[in-house]
Design brief:
The chain is α+β, with helices and mostly antiparallel strands. It is built from 3 helices and 7 strands; from the N terminus they run E-H-E-E-E-H-H-E-E-E. A 3-stranded antiparallel beta sheet has the order 6-5-7, with no helix packed on it. Strands 1-2 form a two-stranded parallel sheet. It has a two-stranded antiparallel sheet with strand order 3-4. Strand 3 and strand 4 form a beta hairpin. The longest helix has 17 residues.
């Protein structure tokens, strides 16, 4: 990560989900355990940089999506752009035996990544 002016000083944006229901807290704990198990994040050893979180309902289900509020942290990062090709365009760009890396936990095609991403779970041959 590249910072605008060095890493941010320690911060604590406070307690999140103080008014969460028992069902929301259960969903939050399940998501936390899933993310720890898959390596999406690791358990914190200290509380020096605390961002808020909130839950939004997933459409058409009785479950919740965890959202991490990194807006304040984003203002301290060097801005960069990442162009994501559509799957239709990607078919024209790849050659036989090229590889595409993707997140095995996702069923959405726009979660596929270009080679070089550090948290790759699997590779799929294309062509």
């Amino acid at each position: 990560m590249r910072w605008v002016a060095g890493p941010p000083e320690p911060f604590d944006h406070g307690v999140s989900l103080g008014d969460a229901t028992a069902g929301q807290l259960e969903s939050l704990e399940e998501e936390n355990e899933r993310c720890l198990r898959t390596g999406a994040w690791t358990r914190a050893t200290r509380r020096t940089h605390v961002s808020r979180v909130f839950l939004v309902p997933k459409p058409g289900t009785n479950t919740w999506r965890l959202v991490l509020d990194f807006r304040w942290l984003d203002t301290r990062c060097v801005r960069s752009d990442c162009r994501m090709e559509t799957l239709k365009k990607l078919r024209c760009l790849v050659r036989n035996n090229d590889y595409m890396y993707f997140n095995m936990n996702s069923r959405r095609p726009y979660d596929w990544h270009a080679p070089g991403i550090a948290d790759v779970h699997a590779a799929q041959p294309v062509g």
